[in-house]
Design goal:
The protein is of the alpha/beta class. The protein is 46% helix and 15% strand. The chain has a seven-stranded parallel β-sheet, with helices on both faces. It binds NADP nicotinamide-adenine-dinucleotide phosphate (NAP). NADP nicotinamide-adenine-dinucleotide phosphate binds at residues 6-13, 31-33, 36, 53-56, 77-81, 100, 104, 125, 127, 170, 172-173, 175-178. NADP nicotinamide-adenine-dinucleotide phosphate binds next to helix 1, helix 4 and helix 6.
Length: 238
């Protein structure tokens, strides 16, 4: 298969890149960090090609991605996380997070969609953070809630073109992104676990790939509680 992955220079995207390449697939690995892209290419230049890309830059993104015409799977995993300090409320923090997680991700869709053929899979990485109003996660959780809604609408609108749109909701995964967290992360899994769960879900065309399963079930159940209970639950976790 020909696979394009954003966020391939680190964490979940990097593991997916290595695992797909090891299985003999051809991967276009995207990210800003040229050194990390070179390292990936050096590991397996037959199967991994680096593409430097900053998805917060509109022209650069469209120009870089327009030329990929024969993709079977696109995994949009690039993302950032910043937590809000409620005592120093900063609207620009929302702009930074949404610029990458929402607008940047949609720039990738804009660039790649014209060349996606029937049967192709478009995989968008959200987060289980969208399921409850977690403390300090106004921007991050909000961006992932937006991505979840957008993905479901794309599932409707791209069905007629035969393009499968899959949404990924990871729980806590051990990556550089979560290394900054100073709180307990229940049921945290490794990048190997995450990569396996995502690859299995993609193979099975699961439109909702949530892992780890128990953590996902708990949060999905909690998200159906009355809103006041959800707030109380999240306050207890603070
Ligand atoms: N780790 C978790 O527990 C967890 C849980 C739920 C959801 N997720 C989601 O999973 C995805 C991957 O997260 P991760 O934990 O693997 O994070 P990570 O290790 O911090 O990796 C983030 C990736 O995003 C790329 N990126 C960030 N800004 C970019 C930009 N402007 N342009 C292009 N690429 C950019 C980074 O590449 P460069 O720095 O090279 O640009 C990097 O490859 C994210 O969407 C995240 O929200 C993670």
């Amino acid at each position: 298969m020909n696979i394009l992955i954003t966020g391939a220079t680190s964490g979940i995207g990097k593991q997916l890149t290595l695992d797909y390449a090891a299985a003999g697939h051809h991967v276009v690995a995207c990210g800003r960090n040229q050194q990390a892209l070179d390292e990936l290419q050096n590991i397996d230049s037959n199967h991994i090609a680096g593409q430097q890309l900053d998805i917060s830059q509109a022209d650069e993104t469209v120009q870089a991605l327009r030329s990929f015409t024969d993709l079977d799977v696109v995994i949009l995993a690039a993302g950032v996380c910043e937590y809000l300090d409620i005592d120093n409320f900063e609207a620009d923090l929302f702009a930074r997070v949404f610029e990458v997680n929402v607008v940047g991700t949609m720039r990738c869709v804009e660039a790649l969609l014209p060349n996606l053929k029937a049967g192709a899979k478009l995989v968008i990485v959200g987060s289980t953070a969208r399921l409850l109003p977690f403390t300090r996660a106004e921007a991050y959780g909000g961006s992932k809630a937006a991505i979840h809604y957008i993905t479901r609408s794309l599932q409707v609108d791209l069905a007629q073109r035969g393009i499968k749109v899959l949404h990924v909701s990871p729980g806590f995964v051990e990556t550089p992104m979560t290394a900054q967290n100073d709180f307990e992360m229940p049921m945290q899994v490794s990048v190997d676990f995450a990569s396996q769960a995502i690859r299995k879900g993609i193979e099975k065309n699961k439109i909702d790939i949530t892992f780890p399963r128990m953590f996902g079930w708990f949060l999905k159940l909690a998200s159906r509680l009355p809103q006041s209970w959800q707030v109380a639950l999240s306050r207890r976790m603070t």
